[in-house]
Every structure is written in C-alpha cells, then in structure tokens.
Amino acid sequence: MLDEKELHRMNIAAQFYDVFFVINIPELEELAAKLVHYGMYASLAGIAGSGLLIGFLYAQGFQSGLLIESIIGVHEFLVSLIYWLIGVHVVAALYHRFLKDGVWSSMVPLFKEQNKES
C-alpha cells in the first residue's frame, strides 16, 4: 500500500505531466509564455545582482558618477520590467481561466475549472 508521501509524489508527477504534455496550446502562446517566464527569472536575477553591485560599489566609495548611475538605471529598469511581466502573466492566466482550455487548472490548485462540455 502507498503511504502519504508516495501519493503526494505521484500527484506532483501527474500535475507535471498535465502541464507539459497534455495541454495543447498554440505555438505562439507557448512562445509568449516562455518569454514571459524567462523574462521574469532574468529580471529577478538582474534586480538582485544589480542591487548587490550597487551596494558593493557604494561601500567602495562610488557614491556618484557614471558607473553607479548606470547600474542604478539598469536596476530601476529591471524593477519596472518585472512589474510589467507580472501584469502580463496575470492577464494571461485570467484569459486562460475564461477560455477554459486547461491551462488554469494546471497552474492553480484551487478553483479548478470545469470542462467546456460541462
């Protein structure tokens, strides 16, 4: 008999399978989703990296000048970009919720959508 941990692992594996192998979405939507996701990952890493670099340079005595101002500009741009990407992500999630194409159910464990036929 399967224990609770094994059932949990099987449930996660089934959700992974549903997300990546069962749902058929148009190639353009799949590309857009990848661009938004990778953009969010890169922005978050860039925000952290540029913030650390700003702190390091400030501690080294670079409190003004072209170098630190440029890095601050990149940092501010990435912060603005992540907000836009999060907004696009939320709008896309709501779009798929109303479309009832299975994408919402693969992302959100609550509020599972009913099939179109139901």
Number of domains: 1
The topology string of helices and strands comes to HHHH
**Overall form:** elongated
The helicity comes to over 70%
Kindly, what is the distance between the CA atoms of the first and last residues, rounded to a whole number of angstroms? 34 Å
The fraction of residues assigned to DSSP E strands is under 5%
Biggest pleated-sheet summary? none
Our count of helices gives 4
- Model regions low in confidence, pLDDT < 50 over at least 5 residues: none
Number of strands: 0
| Average pLDDT for all residues | 82
Radius of gyration: 21 Å
Q: Which class best fits the helix and strand makeup?
A: mainly alpha
Concise synopsis of the structure shown:
The chain is mainly alpha-helical.
